[in-house]
Predict the 3D structure of the following.
Amino acid sequence: MTRLRDALVGLRVVMAVAVALGLGSLLILVTGADPVKAYAALVHEALFDYWGLSNTIVKTSPILLASLAVMVPLRAGVYNIGGEGQIYMGGLFGTLASLHLPALPSMIAIPSALLCAMLGGALWAGIAGLLKAWRGINEVIVTLLMNYIAIHVVSFAVSGPMIASGAPYPYSDEIPEQYRLPLLMPQTDAHIGIIFGLVAAGMIAFIFARTATGLSLDIVGKSPRAARYAGLNVKAHIVASMASGGMLAGLAGGIEVLGLKYRLFHLFSPGYGFDGVVAAFIANANPAFAPLSALFLGALKSGASVMQRAAGVEGTVVDAIVGLVVILVAGSLAWKGDLLGGLIEGFRLKPTSADQVNPTERQS
Amino acid sequence: MSFLPDISLIAVLLASGVRLATPIGFAALGGVLAERSGVYNVGLEGMMLWGAFGAAAGTYLTGSPVAGLVAGVLLGAVAGLLLALLCVGLAVNQLVAGIAINLLCAGLTAFLARALFGLAGGGTAVSGFASLPVPYLSGLPLIGTALFNQDPLVYMLPVLVAVVTICLYRTQAGLRLRAAGESPRAADSAGVNVTAVRYVSLALSGAFAAAGGCHLVLCQVYIFSEGMSAGKGFIALAAIILGRWHPVGAVVAALFFGLCDALQLQLQFSNPLVPYQIFLILPFAASLVALVWFNKGARQPAATGMVFDREAR
């Protein structure tokens, strides 16, 4: 019986998504379109069409990395809402490296440019981590504010010092051939970035579950006081986890330039950092589920483009659905099977206090 | 250009600073209420956007900006109640719930605005509030335009700040609200319904933040556009901390950010050679620096961020 309850609790996200899609079909109905037709078009375009699928993959890979960028600091109890800004910094550093490093063979060129991108993201996120650890400043506000700063920094870079000569729109020079990522699906935009995301998800799932680093992050996140008793350096963990998160988001930004755009553009990320937060929510901060939740969001976004043509409904309905998914998943977090457990086992589980926000907030 | 900027330029700067600070001020005031009652309202940004949409939709449908204001504020209160349902009723992590509210509001307004105004074609302008000069006072040098020749919502903000301050510090309801944020268990023992207090203050918080959004639409640009709150709700979060969780302090901090914003616009026009992005960064950087600088000694209400569960020990 306990197993049944656990299974239902595990499925609550699936139920929340189903309810959100149901509410979304109501929204589509209200606009006078046919929801079945709209969803069918969305699914077909996103998953069963060669070019549509490539588009889905292109959108899934940054979302996947951005969701991991949320999960790693969250394991240490720190909220990284700055993925978007870190993506921009990664893109900036990756582009700078690609444009200024010598003409190396691809095997060396690509990893070094991506490492620079990761460095950019890590430095940007590291600032928030340092402010959190040593000054106790709320990292949510800091990362949110730093998103805007990073976006404007990139906008400045590509419209001033880095602008391509004769460019009609703020963008940088094209990066050289040998810095471009190989394609995954011929004749499409789908590059090998998704593999980086999948490997990272696997590695992080392994680190969380099987290594001492994972355990100490977990202790820092669940109880900073216990972590200090255990001799762990809480502040260092906070900064390191934040910087690692930034590294992952920075990688997403670097891949976006090296794999897809081949230039740095003003506003090159359409909010992938925030999609990453959503994907981390849906995956319940579990890196093993991240590929699935990122694919879900990537498919929604890639399929949205055809809904207008196929079913006469604005693609922005997808944004509304994502919002509903998030709110319902957030609501479903409250349900830990207590009620059902009570019915089945005849006693009510005590609510846990593990949900306490930001345990590090009051450490000083 | 002389070394000292002339008075009229400063007067213009002050006037636009006050106008730009008003949305942030409303949101920060709402945030103070929420955090004083023990709940982080990270959803201010979304509630602002939601209020802006409500104002545009209400005005568009009825033709009256007053109806728009009412609609916007009511929608904001609903968003506040939704946040309360999530993080007070269901005990979901407050930061998670607030971020969820932001994402919901961004998604819903993007969809609804296209459905209602056809934003693809540039959107639909709505009517708004004109400025109401106060006789005699509006002619004062330097501060006349800034303080006494503004729209009605600008005048409403200091009134609300006064009301909120008096209510918070001089009434029993205010004492209960603060008690819910400082020591919910003690408040509960004294017979205060902490849950109800937090629901009410979050509804008010949402309404205030939405009023800030209404100001954006009805007094600044007269049109709704996707994501038009553009981080002002997040700056308001910084204003709350700078203002030491006090209504007056938060609104003064908001004024500071508004002036930064005004300066940014002014410099963008007067110094086209300097890259304009530097000035766009200015309000955000100022928030950040101010957070680091003034963080010492700031203390948030003791129970903010905590889930209150009557049955837990």
Notes: Confidence is low (pLDDT under 50) at residues 338-364 of chain A.
